[in-house]
């Protein structure tokens, strides 16, 4: 059942700005894309750890330029601007760290089995269907390094509201998985977890190995050990996903023993069994 309660901006600010780790937070009723809005704000000088949430997003963008729309009140859609004092080269890890935060938040708020499909799709339930996507976009200009990270999480959606994913299976939501969750509490849980991971990452200068964050990601990544099909611009190939390296690339071993490191591509789980 859809929870009609709108997000309370002042309550969120009291939890996440006044008594929390963020510098600024706004809630808007309708926007095209929270990522686009926050990218524009970043160009105008918005500060580190600025958050924008939207009740309804009409032109959301996912990985590989996929478009999606979330009706008012159904989901949690937000973007965060980060300006971490780390090398620009390691910013590619921010979406993966955000994925860890999403799994932790769902664990805490809903108790629904959750894992990540590389690089940062949130999968829920025994059938591991997609419930959230994460998109990171680099901010260019004199204030770099900076990144805007966007999250779209299905909360109150019914099965009929959800499109099929690349696997052919319909997506899912917390409601479909049997969890009734307050969106504001979920937002606090997610953003708090992200700030904690970001603090640890920054404390180690963006080193995911020394901070232990690479191992934490691997432990949450449901792609590892699976047979996968990787779609690239030039074609596709299949193999077993064996690792995520310290650069965030998916390591895939083919049937012939060849090994490929994938930095970008559309990954499909082709079997449900795992081989560790």
Automatic annotation (TrEMBL):
Residues 24-202 form the BPL/LPL catalytic domain. One of its GO terms (cellular component) is cytoplasm. Keywords: ATP-binding, Biotin, Ligase, Nucleotide-binding. It comes from the Bacteria. PROSITE patterns: BPL_LPL_CATALYTIC. GO terms for molecular function: ATP binding; biotin--[biotin carboxyl-carrier protein] ligase activity. Its EC number is 6.3.4.15. NCBIfam families: birA_ligase. This is biotin--[biotin carboxyl-carrier protein] ligase.
